[in-house]
């Protein structure tokens, strides 16, 4: 599925509306906890690249903290792409910051949706002279997460992210990830920084 | 995308209050005769370039051809061939004027430490009368402890090829924005240099050392620009401009008495677009500034002084065709003022000198004296009246008097308010230094790659008359009601009459023989005259504490029988609409959005390739959005900005690069 601009708009507006209606219950626990996690990711959708590259297993690390409404989060994803033709392989580092909110919670399961903005740094295995070794480009992302709580403070997070990278020919990438997530109380020194 | 923007605006509008009083104060403070940007506004948008700060104002209309020089008009005043707007920094006027006018990014402005920036229309200002408006900048006052601020940002325009560069879908890389950085440290010397402070008057004051620096880059990789500069750069395909600016200063402050010394040197390397040459040029510019200025209160009067030397040089760029424009100007300014304590009157005396080292330039220029005065009075009716005047003794081409006078009336701030500012000012070409002045004086500029086609017989005095009249109304909390939304609306009419504009009639025609460089045919006439006039309507409202939005609508007309005048005003669109939203819904978290629309502009001087038709730049809409968050109190701030969300790739000038969506990330650290 191609995630077109109107779909992103719709998601943003729905989230925005929910955000607005949730004003009355502004959280008093902003920044009180941190969820941090790490896991593996795979790229399942990479239409513009599939003729010349194939994705390999990647890794993702993330952190999130409650905001006044919803949650702020940051994520770094490493994703290599191996060449399938006479082109250089390359590695990507997606650095994103975003916001999400809980949509539904059923027992040990909770689902979240959100959006993020960031940059995708691409490092090419290009040995030519003069060659381009690195390039960065804007990316926007929509994401969904399903957290399965295993213990009181930890769980497994299944994540899905749809990214649009604003290269000349836009790259629409779909990623799946599975991560271990741990929740802990925000240390005072971190609270002082982020508040 | 527009839907997304509107959705975001609606969402922001629905957010809950955080800073109610601030929002009401922001609305209440709106004035039609000046626009104030607070340092906080600049930091929320992560502004490092002075030109970007100007663009945050609804009263600035302009463009940047090369990324670094922002040229334009304030309040509809300031046309090519006329005087540029004047810039004051902490009470002293600063310049960065070259043969092609003010180079805005070379001004020694420490953007990381701006406390506030006030933009005013033509008329009286701190150092006399200006025909093109004022930008008055105050920096943050030195504190008792050492303080340092670092701002840095970097951006990337979308549209790079990515991995597809290795496929048949390969495209060139596109422009980057920055990286840009500004740093300034202010260190109190009172404890370090007790010997100095023991004696004399300094024992009650504070002495601070300022150390600052700015570094910036602009990359110009648009195909049209690359074609024009290819032969100049010996095959270098990705030229970039580089700016380095070290600054040094001393501030001695004792209450109202302040004495300051400032030094700065700005180096800008590469690629300025010079109209006189019809192309970008591989040269470097250097601007040195040394100033000593201050205020001393004695015997019920306030005495002010400033001594300034500005040295501007256009130099060879090493290993790049050894192109030497042979142009160096050293300007010196002495100024002394006496002002009453209650600020009811002021008299100033200035002496403006310049030493030229310009190849072929014949006339010798003597010092130009100027006297200016201001008389403020609060009338019994509550009207604030200011009468200002100045007289300049012009020396070039002959001895004559150049007068100026302004009357300013403002009602007191109440539910209804009005203002009137009317006057005229005459300026000599030796002080404004237009291109015609250098050509008429015999400047022997090299014509590398282009035919020598620019000539001028004389440069005229520029006489400008302006009128600004406004009417405003406040509603709700802005009108004094205790609670509820606040709103102000203003309607302003303005007229600018120009006589003697030193603007050329020009034709820039792409020439395939020179790889699409523009050849110029330029003829400077005399007595160029014309008028610009317009209406400006604005409304500002707090739509919930912490959220303020503002709409500005400007209609500008121009009338002249001189083609040169029409060309000089070609960058002014008939219609401009600006809508801005500032929202601070949560503590230390800011969202901002500015949408700008401007109608088509017709550039008679620029012709389409192979034809006689002028370049028409279609109407364009640009939407910029920003988010910033402070960390560790006010120690750290990060900002993310998306510029040109609508991706309308229409340049603001025929030879300027068009900019696609650009993502900028930055940080400000304050220690």
Main features:
heterodimer, A: 195 residues, eight-stranded antiparallel barrel, 9 strands, 12% helix, disordered N terminus, B: 671 residues, mainly beta, 22-stranded antiparallel β-barrel, five-stranded mixed sheet, 9 helices, globular
Polypeptide structure, described:
- The complex is a heterodimer of chains A (195) and B (671).
- With 195 residues, chain A is mainly β.
- Chain A has an 8-stranded antiparallel β-barrel with strand order 1-3-4-5-6-7-8-9.
- Chain A has 2 helices and 9 strands; from the N terminus they run αβββββββββα.
- Helices cover 9% and strands 53% of the residues of chain B.
- The longest helix of chain B is centred in the N-terminal third of the chain and has 13 residues.
- The N terminus of chain B is likely disordered.
- The interface between A and B is large, with 44 and 38 residues.
In round numbers, the mean pLDDT of chain A is 85
How many DSSP E strands of chain B? Answer: 40
Into which percent range does the helicity of residues of chain A fall?
Answer: 10-25%
Distance between the termini of chain B: 39 Å
Please give the alpha-carbon distance between the first and last residues of chain A: 38 Å
Strand order of the largest sheet of chain A: 1-3-4-5-6-7-8-9
Oligomeric state of the chains in view = heterodimer
Helix fraction of chain B by DSSP (H/I, runs of at least 4): under 10%
Instruction: Quote the beta fraction of chain A.
Output: over 45%
Overall pLDDT of chain B, averaged?
A: 86
Number of helices of chain B: 9
Low-confidence stretches of chain B are 1-18, 197-202
Poorly predicted spans of chain A: 1-7, 12-27
Strand fraction of chain B: over 45%
Label the overall shape of chain B: globular
* Rg measurement of chain A, Å: 18 Å
Coarse shape of chain A: elongated
């Amino acid at each position: 599925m191609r995630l077109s601009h109107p779909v992103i708009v719709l998601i943003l507006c729905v989230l925005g509306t929910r955000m607005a209606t949730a004003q009355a219950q502004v959280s008093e626990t902003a920044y009180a906890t941190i969820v941090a996690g790490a896991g593996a990711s795979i790229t399942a959708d990479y239409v513009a690249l599939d003729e010349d590259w194939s994705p390999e297993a990647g890794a993702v690390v993330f952190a999130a903290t409650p905001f006044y409404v919803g949650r702020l989060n940051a994520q770094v994803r490493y994703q290599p792409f191996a060449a399938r033709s006479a082109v250089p392989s390359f590695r990507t580092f997606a650095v994103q910051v975003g916001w999400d909110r809980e949509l539904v919670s059923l027992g040990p399961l909770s689902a979240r949706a959100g959006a993020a903005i960031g940059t995708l740094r691409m490092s090419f295995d290009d040995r030519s002279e003069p060659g381009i070794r690195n390039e960065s480009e804007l990316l926007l992302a929509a994401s969904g997460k399903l957290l399965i709580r295993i213990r009181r403070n930890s769980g497994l997070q299944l994540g899905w992210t749809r990214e649009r990278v604003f290269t000349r020919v836009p790259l629409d990438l779909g990623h799946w990830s599975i991560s271990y997530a741990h929740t802990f109380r925000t240390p005072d020194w971190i609270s002082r920084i982020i508040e | 995308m527009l839907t997304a923007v509107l959705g975001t605006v609606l969402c922001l509008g629905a957010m809950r209050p955080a800073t109610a009083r601030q929002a009401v104060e922001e609305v209440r403070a709106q004035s039609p005769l000046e626009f104030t940007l607070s340092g906080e506004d600049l930091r929320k948008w992560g502004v490092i370039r002075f030109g970007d700060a100007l663009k945050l104002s609804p009263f600035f209309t302009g463009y940047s051809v090369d990324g670094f020089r922002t040229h334009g008009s304030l309040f509809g005043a300031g046309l090519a061939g006329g005087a540029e707007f004047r810039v004051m920094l902490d009470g002293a006027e600063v310049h960065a004027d070259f043969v092609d006018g003010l180079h805005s990014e070379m001004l020694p402005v420490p953007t990381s430490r701006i406390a506030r920036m006030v933009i005013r229309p033509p008329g009286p200002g701190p150092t006399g009368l200006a025909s093109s408006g004022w930008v008055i900048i105050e920096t943050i006052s030195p504190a008792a402890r050492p303080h340092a601020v670092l701002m840095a940002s970097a951006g990337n325009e979308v549209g790079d090829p990515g991995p597809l560069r290795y496929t048949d879908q390969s495209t060139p890389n596109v422009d980057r924005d920055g990286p840009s950085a500004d740093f300034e440290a202010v260190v109190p010397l009172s404890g370090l240099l007790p010997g100095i402070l023991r004696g004399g008057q300094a024992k009650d004051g504070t002495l601070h050392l300022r150390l600052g620096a700015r570094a910036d880059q602009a990359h110009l990789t648009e195909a049209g620009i690359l074609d024009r500069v290819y032969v100049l750069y010996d095959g270098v395909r990705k030229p970039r401009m580089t700016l380095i600016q070290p600054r040094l200063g001393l501030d001695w402050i004792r209450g109202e008495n302040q004495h300051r010394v400032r030094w700065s040197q700005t180096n800008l390397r590469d690629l300025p677009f010079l109209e006189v040459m019809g192309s970008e040029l591989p040269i470097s510019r250097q601007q040195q500034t040394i100033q000593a200025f201050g205020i001393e209160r004695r015997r019920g009067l306030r005495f002010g002084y400033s001594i300034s030397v500005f040295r501007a040089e256009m130099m060879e760029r090493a290993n790049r065709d050894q192109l030497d424009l042979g142009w160096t100007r050293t300007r010196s300014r002495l100024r002394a003022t006496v002002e009453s304590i209650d600020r009811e009157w002021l008299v100033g005396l200035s002496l403006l000198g310049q030493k030229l080292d310009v190849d072929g330039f014949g006339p010798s220029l003597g010092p130009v004296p100027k006297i200016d005065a201001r008389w403020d009075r609060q009338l019994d009716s509550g009207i604030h009246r200011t009468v200002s005047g100045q007289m300049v003794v012009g020396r070039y081409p002959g001895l004559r008097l150049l007068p100026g006078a302004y009357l300013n009336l403002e009602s007191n701030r109440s539910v209804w308010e009005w203002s009137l500012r009317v006057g005229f000012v005459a300026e000599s070409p030796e002080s404004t230094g237009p291109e015609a002045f250098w050509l008429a004086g015999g400047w022997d500029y090299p014509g590398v790659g282009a035919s020598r086609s620019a000539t001028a017989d004389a440069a005229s005095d520029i006489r400008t008359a302006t009128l600004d009249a406004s009417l405003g109304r406040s509603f709700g909390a802005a009108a004094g009601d205790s609670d509820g939304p606040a709103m102000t609306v203003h309607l302003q009419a303005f007229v600018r009459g120009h006589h003697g504009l030193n603007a050329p009639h020009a034709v820039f025609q792409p020439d395939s023989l020179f790889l699409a460089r523009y050849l110029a045919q330029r003829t400077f006439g005399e007595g160029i005259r014309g008028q610009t006039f317009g209406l400006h309507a604005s409304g500002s409202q707090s739509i919930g504490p912490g959220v303020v939005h503002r709409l500005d609508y400007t209609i500008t007309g121009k009338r002249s029988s001189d083609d040169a005048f029409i060309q000089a005003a070609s960058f002014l669109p008939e219609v401009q609409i600006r809508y801005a939203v500032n929202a601070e819904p949560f503590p230390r978290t800011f969202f901002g959005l500015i949408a700008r629309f401007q109608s088509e502009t017709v550039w008679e001087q620029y012709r389409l390739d192979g034809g006689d038709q002028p370049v028409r730049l279609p109407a364009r809409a640009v939407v910029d959005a920003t988010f910033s968050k402070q960390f560790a109190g006010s120690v750290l701030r990060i900002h993310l900005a998306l510029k040109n969300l609508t991706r309308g790739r229409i340049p603001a000038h025929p030879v300027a690069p068009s900019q696609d969506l650009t993502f900028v990330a930055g940080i400000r650290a304050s220690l």
